[in-house]
From TrEMBL:
Pfam families named among the record's database cross-references: HbrB
GO biological process, one term: TORC2 signaling
Cellular component per GO, a single term: TORC2 complex
Domain of life according to the entry: Eukaryota
Gene: Prr5l
Family of the protein in this entry: Belongs to the PROTOR family.
Name the record gives this protein: PRR5L protein
Species of origin: Syrrhaptes paradoxus (Pallas's sandgrouse)
Amino acid sequence: MTGGFTIALSFALQFQKMGSFRRPRPRFMSSPVLSDLPRFHASRQALHLSSNSAWNSVQTAVINVFKGGGLQNNELYTLNENIRRLLKSELGSFITDYFQNQLLAKGLLFIEEKVKLCEGKYSEDRIDVLSEIWDHYFTETLPTLQAIFYPVQGQELTIRQIALLGFRDLVLLKVKLEEILPLVQTKLPASIVQMLLILQSVHEPTGPSEAYLQLEELVKQVVSPYLGLCEDHSFSGSTCLL
């Protein structure tokens, strides 16, 4: 018994001299977390500045497109890379919302101003101006916006759909086209019919809105026969047609 106790005591003393298998606790001042804080803040600040720079370039390009400008050589590649960088940042989940509520709304103001300039003119002149505005928006502005925001995928509404809904709500429905169409005595431009049908093809995920139903009334004036979405446009107890 005594010999066994002596051997156990000797082994314990040797184990104590060897030390524990756990890593020794670092001293407070030499903690790698604290020592890395300045570098961490610097990298975070650099990332923030990079995100701001990327987003500013996207904003500038989008507003320039709405003003009628185009993209420079290789600018689209740079903008796509900036969008991809933003998608990986803290701003990633807000890109679509910011485009819809800020950039698009601001850009469409330039188009709305062009429409206002023709107020008071003859109905045919106002229709011609609206036709030209739509042609440029559909063939130039819209494809460029889609190209810039190409990396933004998998959203409930695509950039194309958001841009078309914006044009419907912020431009077309402010023209009071329902009052102009009955006064037009010449043949209606094909682009006006195209505009109404394309805008009508875009549906909000929440169901037909008041703006959509207003648009449908305009389509009825240019397409005959026409089967609308709802016979009764009241939201309570409306009779919808397939």
